[in-house]
Design brief:
The complex is a heterodimer.
Chain A (H helix, E strand, L loop, with lengths): L1 H8 L14 H11 L8 H15 L34 H5 L5 E2 L2 E2 L7
Antiparallel strand pairs in A: 1-2
Helix pairs in contact in A: 2-3
Chain B lengths: L5 H9 L5 H15 L6 E4 L1 H17 L9 E5 L26 H8 L3 E6 L33 H8 L5 E6 L5 H7 L2 E4 L19 E6 L2 H11 L29 E5 L9 H16 L3 E5 L7 H16 L18 H12 L2 H14 L4 H22 L5 E5 L15 H5 L6 H6 L3 E9 L2 E9 L4 H14 L12
Parallel strand pairs in B: 2-3, 7-8, 7-9
Antiparallel strand pairs in B: 1-3, 4-6, 5-6, 5-10, 9-11, 10-11
Helix pairs in contact in B: 2-3, 5-6, 7-15, 9-11, 9-12
Classes of the chains: A mainly alpha, B alpha/beta.
Chain lengths: ~110, ~475
């Protein structure tokens, strides 16, 4: 992966960084964290493609970032504040019309508390 | 009429050469007859378009018409439209009809534009080929065996096939500029914060930015005038003074300092594409610009940094699609967790799932510093490269993409091959800078693009340079082979 990006950019080969391997159990854990069902038959394929993506991003490890402040916003802006007053109409009914299941102002989901 | 630019349509409407209803019917008819070949529209809003056109004609007759009064345009299906399905190219939102307009949509409505419909895109704007859309791939009007680029592939194909004179689009890592390059159009990604993101379905909030896709730089300036605004509803919108982007189009380029980054002309760039781009830069020299080689030393880290930051932000943003409040919900969930997991598993496509999982990985306990924090630090290094470069030059120029449009399926199942498609455009998003792609010639009968990058909020300079180039060249007048 490193080789491919460097070739595209004409960089000289750099020492290979140890590549992160993602296996079935990692994918199962990530799928649980992200609340996404990954079908049993595709887990290996997904693990391989995520390993490939991580090999690409692992190149960051070679960058010298000592003393560099992380950048969250291109213009280093901070959150703009506004006066704390109601500025929008209450459109609960309009928004709840979009829900797969809503009743009397409540969103319906399977029973959570037994 | 479909051969006319937006600037010419505005004149024609005001001269009463044609009415907005005639013009709108003409485009609706073209969409009906021709779009089956391209699949660029997801939804055609015929009734709305004709009602808006009728109202526009009345305003034109009364003489109080705003800038784009009566001009039909298409909106990328990422912008919420009141009462009109907004799918974001996903099964997840196949049934989603927003009860409000995005600020961009509202701005165009106020400017008098007519909405023809909503155009196709990669699912949640994740892709560079428009192959990830739930509504099927969009075809490139120059060669229907090839992709139009992405994620704004529908916007690009609709304008290139002359089914709309202009379209809205969005760019998180190159999604306006790369399809503009592959379809022979002018595409502008403004400075981060210049255009409101309110009502634009979020992918990576610190990178997403909306902009226009048109046939000329002059049209892009006209469209940006209507699109850009300061918006209280988007807390990242920047309150910088707005200008009339058409006012400086005719300024001379004498003495303009152009920087050409050596990192953008390396082995990975197809030689024929490099030749067209170099020839275009020479044209600027003829117009009095000074060309100098520059270096953006952290270029090779842009794609890796992006594929931590964008997935991390997407995994957070897309957590709102939970099958509870809107969007797809699975049948017969056995409990709440099953509801979440199956609704998301069934409705998100492969690429979207992949990015959410990568984001979840990069943000998970024990990996945050190694990935997310590291990528944010590298992001600053990349921005600093540009800040340093702009001490010496006014505009940076290079290729938009490595080659002309590629064939469907040619990147195979390899996500990284697709990610590298945006190698020249991604750094601009990380830095927050404006970037523009304009056509600069054909390779194998398909267009390639020249990318121009300027300093923060200097969109006027990009449009000025592009317009001057289009006064002395005719690449932008080349059109895709007509089907009728």
């Amino acid at each position: 992966m490193m080789t491919r990006l460097n070739r595209l950019l004409g960089n000289e080969e750099k020492a290979q960084i140890s590549e992160t391997q993602v296996d079935r159990s990692d994918i199962e854990k990530l799928a649980e964290l992200a609340r996404i069902e990954i079908s049993e038959s595709t887990v290996d394929e997904v693990a391989k493609s995520i390993t490939d993506v991580l090999a690409l991003v692992d190149q960051l490890q070679a960058a010298d970032t000592d003393g560099i402040a992380p950048m969250a916003h291109p213009l280093d802006a901070t959150q703009r504040l506004r006066v704390d007053r109601v500025s929008e109409d209450n459109r609960r009914d309009d928004f709840q019309k979009l829900a797969p299941a809503a009743e009397q102002g409540l969103y319906l989901v399977p029973k959570v508390i037994e | 009429m479909h051969n006319l630019t937006i600037a010419e349509l505005i004149k024609g409407l005001r001269n009463k050469d044609f009415t907005s209803v005639e013009l709108t019917r003409h485009y609706l008819d073209r969409i009906k007859r021709l779009d089956a070949n391209y699949n660029s529209f997801v939804t055609v809003t015929e009734d709305i378009a004709l009602a808006q056109a009728k109202a526009a004609d009345e305003r034109l007759a009364q003489g109080d018409a705003p800038a784009l009064c009566g001009v039909p345009i298409a909106h990328k299906d990422i912008f919420c439209t009141d009462g009109v399905r907004t799918s974001c190219g996903s099964k997840m939102l196949d049934n989603f009809v927003p009860p409000y307009d995005a600020t961009v949509v509202e701005n165009y409505r106020k400017a008098g534009a007519v909405m023809l419909g909503k155009v196709n895109m990669d699912e949640f704007a994740m892709g560079s080929s428009n192959e990830t859309s739930f509504y099927g791939p969009v075809k490139n009007p120059w060669d229907t065996n090839c992709v139009p680029g992405g994620s704004s592939g529908g916007s690009a194909a609709a304008v290139a096939a002359q089914l709309a004179p202009g379209a809205t689009a969005t760019d998180t890592g190159g999604s306006i500029r790369q399809p503009a390059s592959l379809c022979g159009l002018t595409g502008l990604k403004p400075t981060y914060g210049r255009v409101s993101r309110w009502g634009m379905i979020a992918f990576a909030s610190s990178l997403d930015q909306a902009g226009p896709m048109t046939r000329t730089a002059e049209d892009a300036a006209i469209m940006l005038n209507a699109m850009a605004s300061f918006d209280d509803k988007d807390s990242t919108c920047v309150d910088e003074p707005l200008c009339d982007y058409t006012a400086s189009l005719n300024d001379s380029l004498q003495g303009l300092r152009i920087g050409v980054p050596k990192e953008y002309f390396s082995e990975g760039l197809q030689p024929e594409t490099a030749e067209r781009v170099q020839a275009a830069i020479k044209e600027f020299e003829k117009m009095g610009a000074e060309i100098k080689e520059i270096s953006l030393p952290h270029t090779s880290l842009a794609v890796p940094a992006y594929y931590v930051i964008a997935p991390a932000e997407c995994s957070a943003n897309l957590s709102r699609f939970d099958g509870v409040r809107y969007g797809h919900r699975c049948e017969n969930p056995k409990d709440l967790n099953d509801l979440y997991k199956r609704s998301r598993g069934e409705a998100f496509g492969e690429e979207v799932k992949r990015r959410i999982l990568v984001g979840a990985y990069a943000l998970s306990a024990g990996y945050y510093d190694a990935y997310y924090r590291k990528a944010q630090q590298v992001r600053r290094l990349i921005k600093q490269d540009f800040v340093d470069a702009f001490n010496d030059v006014d505009v940076i120029m290079g290729p938009t993409a490595t080659a002309p449009a590629f064939a469907f399926g040619s990147k195979g199942d390899d996500p990284v091959a697709m990610y590298l498609e945006d190698i020249y455009t991604i750094a601009t998003n990380l830095a927050g800078l404006p970037g523009l792609s304009i056509p600069c010639g054909l390779v194998d009968s398909k267009p390639v693009g020249l990318q121009l990058i300027s300093n923060f909020f200097d969109e006027a300079k990009l449009l000025n340079a592009a317009h001057q180039f289009q006064q002395v060249t005719d690449h932008h007048q080349q059109t895709a082979p007509a089907l009728d």
